[in-house]
Amino acid sequence: MKEPNELAVKDPSLYNEDLAPVSKEKKNWNWLNYTTVWMGMVHNIVAYETAGSLLSLGMNVWQALATVIVANVILIAAMWLNSSSGAKYGVPFPVLIRAIFGYKGAQIPIIIRAFVAIFWFAVQAYAGSKAVGAVLGVLIPGWHSLASFHLLGMGLDDAIAVALFWILHAYVISHGMERVKFFELWAGPLVIVLGLGLVIWAIVVSKGFGPLFSEPSKLSGGEFWGVFWISVTGLIGTWATLILNIPDFTRFSRSQKDQMIGQGIGLPGTAIIFSIMSIITTSGTIIAFGKPIWDPVELLQQFGNPIILILGAIALLIATLSVNVAANVVSPAYDLVNLFPKKLNFVKAGLISIVIALFFAPWLWYNNSGIIFSILGAIGGALGPVAGMMIADYHIVRRGKYDMASFYKKDGEYEYKNGWNVNALISLAIGLIASFIGLIFPALKELYNYSWFLGIGVGFISYVMLMRSSSKHQENILENIPTSID
Fold this sequence. Notes:
single chain; mainly alpha; Hydantoin permease; two-stranded antiparallel ribbon; 2 strands; globular; NCS1; Pur-cyt_permease; NCS1 family nucleobase:cation symporter-1
């Protein structure tokens, strides 16, 4: 890649090819690529279960739909605000975050974000492995008898399914971002076919839409609002890592218009449609089976038809591979490359990430909707302050201007004090306290329902105030900073 003049001098501990600005010829993702990437990410087992489980929390269909719509409108606003820096400068999250925390301090949010993404990989991969087990159970006689043998807290049949699905992930990421782009182009739309089939079944079994939408809510007015906000926070928590590392994708965009249109169609558009499918289908299971079944693999098994089970499970496998590679491998891969730029590239780091994910052992705690929303809320609360600080830094503090050369050297504008921006560390601490104050003080427990909102808001405000109080920083941003890598 031909390097810009301002990057002629760079520190090898802060730079390699995966962290470098994307060249013009590689900025070839158009709006369709971003639409299909998001389709691939939102059409997955965990997203289906998360939307469907709103009914198991006591909501009716209308309440669940409203919850999903509100969460996705908020999400796309946050995504757009944090996407533009990647599209403009062509650099990933681990590089952009240096402008906020300093080249050393940046490792803190990078490690937090990598930890969360790898955790999410484990959750998604385990969910998808259940579909692998369902297919093998149909194709191999006596497959489920292996469950009597135990390994790492699960039956041997589940352990083999987990191992096979992990290997599939390794295959997809083995050729870098171009394979991710190609895979996402067709994986997302395929899952819509499965979703439509389940919706048709729900309508038929319910004899029309009427019964689906007439199931009463089990929540009173006050109870509903408590569940509503913690559910919105949980749904946002599903994509909390993507809010931070969306520049990892938009850095390849042909233009700001491409990434904004593609994401606008792909995130709120297809996410809401897919959630509607999940909610309608789950509502149909209440009528058909007397209880909400929000696990799509369990639902497919209820039909007792091996062909339906195999085809449906394969679609779910593709869906889960799609979201896991895009959302939960790309981000920690770039994070690990940033930590060890001399030793790792994207593919090696991605493979390391999926190995680390095994240690989260999701098979020990996964099957509980209450636990899932609690975890999602914690994830959103932990990453909210960083998202607020990123948005504040680019749009308010620096007004869209970064010094490209300083991203890759230790004595540039982002050196701060020996590589640490104390203002950013204080702001992060304040934001985290705001996010989790409901857990720290029982009298304020209701505030935990709004953990992501508190985190992003307090992180945004405190960062702007602290940075504007720094006279040295004010002098720096008034300098004639290069705004292009051309």
